[in-house]
Amino acid sequence: VANKLYPLDYISQNIEQFATKMLLSVVDVQQISGGTQDSTASDETCSRINKENVQEKLPKGEESTTEGNGLSSENTIENDSQKLPRHSSTVSMAKAQRCMSLYFALCSKKHALLQQVFIIYAQAPKSVKQAVHRHIPTLVRAIGSSSSELLQIISDPPQGSESILMQVLHILTEGTTPSRDLIETVKQLYETKLKDAGILIPMLSSLSKDEVLPIFPRLVDLPLDKFQNALARILQGSVHTGPALTPAEVLIAIHGIDPEKDRIPLKKITDACSACFEQRTVFTQQVLAKVLNQLVEQTPLPLLFMRTVIQAIGAFPALVDFVMEILSRLVSKQIWKLPKLWVGFLKCAYQTKPHSFHVLLQLPAPQLENALNRHPTLRAPLASYASQPNIRSTVPRTTLVVLGLAQDNLPMTPVSSIPQPIDA
């Protein structure tokens, strides 16, 4: 019907009306159209109109051929009309597919018709939505991203049609670089109407670094499975431009997110970090060393810095010597003035003992006392380490006093009386 009869001007409108009738028969037409006409009467009217119009406009000899094509001999229309489901809640997916098949075939000839599918989708029952999703791939591949009508639909999708929109976007970008028109249409939709960064995921492999970084916090705010999908596309990039961000740039971007300023829950950010660490063939030991080396120089230090240091050494124990260098640099930055990071610093030092002993001995006496009070089991092994002649000679007397390796000639200021550091 779509290939042979629909191109004929004298019958195309009737075919389109009939296909639309079949499409609407599987959803609640009253709810969508706002009409009050009795559904049975509507079916009978549509059947009569289609029979009369088709019979009037078909030339002699074509009545029988149309029957073979499945549209509209008198008996075919009447039978199809009688088969229209009266209650959408009882429509099976298979029946919905049959009822919609002609309409979808016409969409491939007249792309603007797809708008109606988007409109009915939101209020369609589950089985009908499943049928729509079955039809969409073949249709969208046939239409292609160069269709101005399809781009118009994408630019202003009806409310509730987000699922079908996402399916269309994924199909249009499967194994190919999306057209610039499609990319700009989706970006404009995100910026003006649909504030869901998920719609940008199919486009990410074709975006530049400058385009990805501003939206990156919103991608982290997506559900974890969607963020993982977004991450894969960012790292994949296109054959022409390569990845939008390198693995190191991804981790640095995650640490650059401010939970309060960007209004993203801290757990979302930590989950994003963990998702990166799960890909050890991508986020390698060398990548993590590069990231930590850059992050430790930032002012202020990222909130999740120590958490990432601990994760890094857990994933790659061979980084322990490098991490000790990082901890030494943190001592020179007076890490104890940042209470949240100080807790992480001490946890890392505890977990990496005895490698961290020489770092702990670099702490001023009051901060060392604080560290040993928080982790009492460190005191004895640290004192034993510091008592070695070649080590003891390099340790300040005040530190030896804290460790009980020397007598204090002067009263030492109690740790409790030391002014509390201000969170930088």
TrEMBL record:
<feature type="region of interest" description="Disordered">
    <location>
        <begin position="53"/>
        <end position="89"/>
    </location>
</feature>
<feature type="compositionally biased region" description="Basic and acidic residues">
    <location>
        <begin position="53"/>
        <end position="63"/>
    </location>
</feature>
<feature type="compositionally biased region" description="Polar residues">
    <location>
        <begin position="66"/>
        <end position="79"/>
    </location>
</feature>
<dbReference type="InterPro" id="IPR022075">
    <property type="entry name" value="Symplekin_C"/>
</dbReference>
<protein>
    <recommendedName>
        <fullName>Symplekin C-terminal domain-containing protein</fullName>
    </recommendedName>
</protein>
<feature type="domain" description="Symplekin C-terminal">
    <location>
        <begin position="196"/>
        <end position="373"/>
    </location>
</feature>
<dbReference type="Pfam" id="PF12295">
    <property type="entry name" value="Symplekin_C"/>
</dbReference>
